[in-house]
Amino acid sequence: MSKLLVPYYEHPAEQPEAWDALIAAAPSLYGVVLNPANGAGSSADAAFAEVADRLRSAGVRVLGYVDTAYGARPPQDVVREAARHRAWYGVHGLFLDQVATSALQLPYYADLRAALAATYDTYVTLVLNHGAVPHPGYARIADLLVTFEGPWSAYPPAGPTGPDTCHLVYGAPPDAVAQAPVHCLVPGQLPHPWGTLPHCLEPVR
């Protein structure tokens, strides 16, 4: 059964009806990515804390957004930001963005996984957003690999699609069909496609 992983980067106070639609769609969701300030930010946001609590109460997996700069960001900075996500928003895990695809960075991400696990008192769900097909070794590190992020005009991608892969597609038409078991196909376009929900979740206005 397919599931939606929704990176929705809008403030709950500005788009409350969209967050209501996400919470109502709980059974169809793999998870929702929280991104208060291109990451956790420097201080807690009460509106995001409230919506995170509602998502958890609905049984939705909540993931905190953290950029890794393709393995160039100091690991301790990633771990500190992950800890803020956990303390402020009670996330179940992390959505690591700008993740490398090469085998050269595998040790960086393997060490990062171990360090993150040590900071949580429960299992950490880890989603790696490569945006392209990575080296097979990353499958041993993550719970879910995003192997495509891009426009509908470039979809579907080349490469294998396994049970632990996800596709994030923007500029998608209403009748678009995903080729991965976990996915998010939204109508939005660059520069801010993840300010829109999948067609099936758009609230009635």
Overall mean pLDDT score? 95
Globally, the shape reads globular
Strand content: 15-25%
Classify the secondary structure makeup into a structural class: alpha/beta
Biggest pleated-sheet summary: 8 strands, parallel, barrel
Low-pLDDT windows of residues: none
For the biggest β-sheet, the strand order reads 1-2-3-4-5-6-7-8
Kindly, what is the distance between the CA atoms of the first and last residues, rounded to a whole number of angstroms? 29 Å
Total DSSP E strands: 8
What does it look like?
- The protein has helices at residues 16-24, 46-57, 75-89, 106-119, and strands at residues 3-7, 29-34, 62-67, 93-97, 125-129, 144-151, 165-170, 182-185.
- The chain is of the alpha/beta class and 205 residues long.
- The longest helix is centred in the middle third of the chain and has 15 residues, at 75-89.
- It is globular, with a radius of gyration of 16 Å.
- The two termini are 29 Å apart.
Key features?
alpha/beta, 4 helices, about 25% helix, globular, Spherulation-specific family 4 protein, Spherulin4
List the helices and strands and how they pair.
Blueprint: E1 3-7, H1 16-24, E2 29-34, H2 46-57, E3 62-67, H3 75-89, E4 93-97, H4 106-119, E5 125-129, E6 144-151, E7 165-170, E8 182-185
Helix pairs in contact: 3-4
What's this model, at a glance?
The chain is α/β, with parallel strands linked by helices and 205 residues long.
